[in-house]
Amino acid sequence: MYGYNYLVYIMPAILLTLFAQYKVKKAYSEYSKIDSGTGMTGAEVAKSILQSHGLYDVRINRVSGNLTDHYNPQTRELNLSDGVYSKKSIASLGIAAHEVGHAIQHQEGYSPLKLRSVLIPMANIGSNFGIYMVIMGMIFSRVLVNVGIVFFAASVAFTIITLPVEFDASRRAQIELENYMSQEALAGSRKVLSAAALTYVASTVMAVLQLLRLLSISRDR
Predict the structure, then answer these.
(1) What is the pLDDT of residues 182-213, one digit of tens each?
(2) pTM exceeds 0.85
(3) Rounded to whole angstroms, how far apart are CA atoms 62 and 191?
(4) Sheet of 77-81: strands edge to edge?
(5) Of the listed 99, 108, 178, 184, which one is catalytic?
(6) Separation between Cα atoms, residue 33 and residue 220, nearest integer Å
(7) Which of 5, 22, 204, 219 gives a 20 to 30 Å CA spacing to 211?
(8) Measuring CA to CA, which residue among 70, 18, 8, 10 is closest to residue 198?
C-alpha cells in the first residue's frame, strides 16, 4: 500500500512541500531582520488594525514557538509567536496583519471560514485516523474502508477550503498594511505571505493525491 510505487506517486507533492518550506524559511529569515520602518511591533500593529475594525474584544496573546501564529475563532484570541509579537520587522508585521485578517473574516461571517469551522471535527478524525481505518478495513471489513475514506475526504475538503481562507487573509493584510508601511516594505511582506501560502498549496496537493490513492486501492480490493 505504501511501497515504492506510492512514493513515486506522491513525489511531486513531497518536492513541492520541501520547496515551500525552503521558501518560507528563506523569506522569514530575510525579512525578520529588516525593520518595517513603522516603529511598531507586530502586536501593536495587530491591535491598531483590530481597533480600526471595531474589534476591541479580540485578545492578543504572546505564545511560544516559531511561526506558531494563529487566530482562534472559538475564543476570539489572536496568538502571536515571540518573533512576531514583540519585533518590528517586515515579517513580523506581515504575519500579524495576516492573523488579524482571519479575525476580520470572522467578524464579517466570511463563508469559507465558517465552512472550515464546520469541517473541523470530521477533518481531525480523518487526518488522524482515516488512513488507519482504511488499512484495518482491508483486513476486517469493507464498510470500515468506506468510513475511513469518508473521514479522510473530510480532511481533504478542510485542506482545500483552507486555501481561499488563507489567500483572503493575506489580501486583507496587504490592504491594511498600506496604512503603515512603505511600498518597499509592503513588497517584502508580500513575499513572506506568498511563501507561507505556498505551504498550504503543497499540503492540499499532498492531501488530494493521498485521497486519490486511497480511492484507487479501495476499488482494486
Answers:
(1) 999 999 999 999 999 999 999 999 999 999 98
(2) yes
(3) 24
(4) 59-63, 77-81, 70-72
(5) 99
(6) 53
(7) 22
(8) 18
